[in-house]
Amino acid sequence: MLIVSVLAAAIVPGFALLAYFYWKDRYDTEPISIVLKMFMFGVLIVLPIMIVQRSLVLWWGESPFVYSFIISSGVEEFFKWFVLYHIIYNHTEFDEPYDGIVYAVAVSLGFATLENVLYAFLQPATFGTLFMRALLPVSGHALFGVLMGYSLGKAKFSVGKGVKLHLWLALLVPIVWHGFYDFMLLTFPPTWLWTAVPFMFLLWFIGMRMVNNANAVSPFRFLKREEEVKF
């Protein structure tokens, strides 16, 4: 019974956040089957990410800056970006800017959920620590997904040099934010929580602005309004 409770505590935050961002799609919600498929891809990349990260630690050591910005955030965000670009970017269901956010959040939360499960069973985790992980690392991964997906959506509907620019931003912006978060955890004093909480509030503020901006430029928003007027 305890195992089931711990497992639920580790899994629920990821699915709750995925549902939240999925329902934020105002005009043309994505097929849930494809969203869950992207979530599972996020789960599947955990093992190769762990292998690459372990290899880089043995090669480069664990300098806080190198670990934060290259080994941790660099590797994790690259794998997420790689999956999104090669699997969903050219998919016919990716037909509005907000879709980039939905799919990027799905991949990020698939990764974060399995990571949370492994933490719960391999570390002496309590419900308190799992709650804190839901507020910080898990929601952090969701918001890094928002940052990535926002630029991915802009790349999808840009032309010319704007496409490459936003594809690069989709990779680099979450790496920087994720890296700064990890660097903060590794180098700040034990009272780091007083810094982490405002950091997460700022990240949520930026993320929700991106959510609203992506919805505001949906090509389906006018169609939706016309349907509401007819009704």
* Rg value: 18 Å
Helix/strand-derived category reads mainly alpha
Strand content: under 5%
Distance between the termini: 50 Å
Number of strands: 0
Average pLDDT confidence is 87
Give the topology string: H per helix, E per strand. HHHHHHHHH
Largest sheet: number of strands, sense, barrel closure: none
Please count the helical segments: 9
| Low-pLDDT regions | 225-231
What is the percent of helical residues?
Answer: over 70%
Total domain count: 1
Shape: globular
Keywords: Cell membrane, Hydrolase, Membrane, Protease, Transmembrane, Transmembrane helix
Function: Involved in the degradation of specific anti-sigma factors.
Membrane topology: Multi-pass membrane protein
Transmembrane segments: 6-23, 35-53, 65-88, 100-122, 134-153, 165-186, 192-211
